[in-house]
Each structure stands twice: as structure tokens, then as C-alpha cells.
Amino acid sequence: MKRHKILVVDDEQAIRDMCKKALEWDGYRVDVSQNAHEALELLDKEEDCDLVLTDLNLPGCNGLELIREIKKRYPHCKTLLMTGSLPLKHIYTKDCLHKPFDFVELVSKIKKVLFSP
């Protein structure tokens, strides 16, 4: 069985660490990045990424801009946006996780996105 690869992008180390721990515990391979520039560099090196979980508010390039760039460069890679700053109805994406969230919610949403058509 394939172990899916996930990249977690957030400027808060505590969020990166929590996501990495939860996802590795559930069997995923996980890389982390603190900003969009670093995330794109990692994706250029590691072409087997299945999903990018990114925060909306990143320094420099925000999460929505990062998702647009990922969709252009890596159309096979799925994305999931996380935010704690805006109500979900104001974000134009169905794949969104609202902070704060727990391990169960994170893993459930990841599985939903990974295994949706």
C-alpha cells in the first residue's frame, strides 16, 4: 500500500509540529515548510507529493496564491487550506480546515481530500 506524501506549510512551528506528528502517526510521510517559497522549492525537489496542507496567512505569498501556483506546476497534487482568520464562507475553496482543529478532524479531512475524485 502506498504511503501518501504530505507537505505542511505554516509559519507557526507549533502548527507544523502538531500536523506532522498527527499525520505521521496515521501513516503518512510528511515534510514541513514555513513559507510558500520554501514549499515550492521542496515540491521542485520532491515530485511525489500527494497533498499540500497550507495556512492562508503566510509571509510573502499567501496560501491561496500558493495553491494557485501548485495547481499550475503540479496538477496531480491535491491541496487543503487551513485558516483561523476568516469565516469559511469568504474563502473560495471547498477544501478548507478551520483552526483550531484536532487530530481526528485533521486526519479525517486529509483522507477526504486525498481520496476524492
Question: Any descriptors?
Answer:
globular, 39% helix, alpha/beta, 117 residues, Rossmann fold
CATH class: Alpha Beta
- Largest sheet, spatial ordering of strands: 2-1-3-4-5
CATH topology: Rossmann fold
- CATH architecture group name: 3-Layer(aba) Sandwich
What value does the Rg take, in angstroms? 13 Å
Give the strand content: 15-25%
Largest sheet: 5 strands, parallel
The number of E-state strands comes to 5
Number of helices: 4
How much helical structure, as a percent, in the residues? 25-40%
Structure classification = alpha/beta
How many domains is the backbone divided into?
A: 1
Q: What's the average pLDDT?
A: 89
Q: How would you name the CATH homologous superfamily?
A: Response regulator
List low-pLDDT spans.
none
End-to-end span in angstroms? 19 Å
Shape: globular
The H/E string reads: EHEHEHEEH
